[in-house]
C-alpha cells in the first residue's frame, strides 16, 4: 500500500513538473508544501521514483517511443506518459520490484487517473516492452 501511494505521489509530482516546467527538486518541494502528506514512507518512495526517472529520462522516453511509434511523446497525454515513465523506470532500474507488479500498478494508476482508454493503452505498451526487452534478456541469461 505504501508503494502504491508512492507511485501516486510520483505521478502527481511528474505531472506538476511537466506542466510548470519546474526542476525536479522544485516540483518535489512544491508538492511537500501544498499537499497533505499522510505517509512519509510513501513520500520517500515517490521522491525516489521521481529522481530516478529524472536522471534516466532520455533512456526511459527512448524505450517508450520505441513502443509507441505512431504516437510521439508530445501526443501521449501527460498522465499516460508519466504512468509509463514510472513503470519503465521500475522495470529497468528497480530490480527489487518484479516487472509484473510494475505493469499491474501502472494499469491501476491508469484506471484511477487516466481516460477510459488509458488502462488498455498502458497495459499494451508495457506488455510489449516486457516481452521484447526484459523477458528476452532474462531468457538469454538462463
Could you please describe the fold and organization of this structure?
By secondary structure, this protein is an all-alpha fold. The chain is 78% helix and 0% strand. The protein is built from seven helices and no strands. It has helices at 2-20, 24-34, 40-55, 57-66, 78-93, 99-113, 118-141. The longest helix has 24 residues, at 118-141. The termini are far apart. The model has no long low-confidence stretch (mean pLDDT 92).
Tell me the overall shape. Answer: globular
Per DSSP E runs of 2 or more residues, the count of β-strands stands at: 0
CATH class: Mainly Alpha
Main β-sheet description: none
CATH superfamily: NusB-like
Q: Estimate the strand proportion.
A: under 5%
* N→C terminal distance: 32 Å
CATH third-level topology: N-utilizing Substance Protein B Homolog, Chain A
Which runs of at least 5 residues are low in confidence (pLDDT < 50)? none
Helical percentage: over 70%
Structural class: mainly alpha
Order of secondary-structure elements: HHHHHHH
How many domains?
1
Amino acid at each position: 500500500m505504501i508503494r502504491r501511494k508512492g507511485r501516486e505521489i510520483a505521478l502527481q509530482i511528474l505531472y506538476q513538473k511537466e506542466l510548470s516546467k519546474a526542476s525536479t527538486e522544485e516540483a518535489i518541494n512544491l508538492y511537500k508544501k501544498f499537499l497533505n502528506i499522510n505517509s512519509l514512507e510513501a513520500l520517500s518512495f515517490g521522491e525516489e521514483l521521481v529522481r530516478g526517472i529524472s536522471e534516466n529520462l532520455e533512456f526511459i522516453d527512448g524505450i517508450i517511443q520505441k513502443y509507441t511509434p505512431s504516437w510521439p511523446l508530445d501526443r501521449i497525454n501527460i498522465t499516460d506518459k508519466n504512468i509509463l515513465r514510472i513503470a519503465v523506470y521500475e522495470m529497468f532500474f528497480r530490480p527489487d520490484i518484479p516487472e509484473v507488479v510494475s505493469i499491474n500498478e501502472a494499469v491501476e494508476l491508469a484506471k484511477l487517473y487516466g481516460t477510459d482508454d488509458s488502462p488498455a493503452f498502458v497495459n499494451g505498451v508495457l506488455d510489449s516492452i516486457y516481452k521484447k526487452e526484459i523477458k528476452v534478456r532474462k531468457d538469454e541469461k538462463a
